TrEMBL record:
<feature type="domain" description="CENP-V/GFA">
    <location>
        <begin position="2"/>
        <end position="114"/>
    </location>
</feature>
<dbReference type="InterPro" id="IPR006913">
    <property type="entry name" value="CENP-V/GFA"/>
</dbReference>
<dbReference type="InterPro" id="IPR011057">
    <property type="entry name" value="Mss4-like_sf"/>
</dbReference>
<comment type="similarity">
    <text>Belongs to the Gfa family.</text>
</comment>
<dbReference type="Pfam" id="PF04828">
    <property type="entry name" value="GFA"/>
</dbReference>
<protein>
    <submittedName>
        <fullName>GFA family protein</fullName>
    </submittedName>
</protein>
<keyword id="KW-0456">Lyase</keyword>
<keyword id="KW-0862">Zinc</keyword>
<keyword id="KW-0479">Metal-binding</keyword>
Length: 123
């Protein structure tokens, strides 16, 4: 069981499913919203239980981002045409047992850091 929450505790999420695709996103939107690199994994929508009121922001015509309106924690990313939801690994409260698989949108990464872990990088 993976459990997580926002900073203030108004939103909680959990899943018993094995999360897929653990990655670090370097896109400009994730950097602006999180203040850095956003790490996430995803599960099927039917396998994710969310309690509390998530505020959703339509960040593009294809996706939305879920956050806590009280503390501002950026918790979820959802492609509108997919039946999965990504959740913030940084918001997970217990051990995940996951290992990062890749870095995505590295063409947008900030110039103030290097990616040096040897994982695959996708532009």
């Amino acid at each position: 069981m993976i459990k997580g929450q926002c900073l203030c505790g108004n939103i909680h999420f959990e899943t018993e499913a094995a999360p897929m695709g653990p990655s670090m996103c370097h896109c400009g939107q994730c950097r602006r919203q999180s203040g850095g690199i956003w790490s996430s994994a995803y599960v099927a929508d039917t396998d994710l239980t969310i309690t509390g009121t998530v505020s959703w922001f339509a960040s593009s015509p294809n996706a939305k981002r879920g956050f806590c309106a009280t503390c501002g924690s950026f918790l979820f990313w959802k492609a509108l045409d997919e039946d999965t939801t990504s959740f913030a690994l940084g918001a997970v409260s217990n051990s995940t047992g996951l290992t990062l698989e890749k870095h995505i949108f590295v063409a947008d990464k900030g110039d103030y850091y290097k990616i040096a872990d040897g994982l695959p990088q996708q532009d």
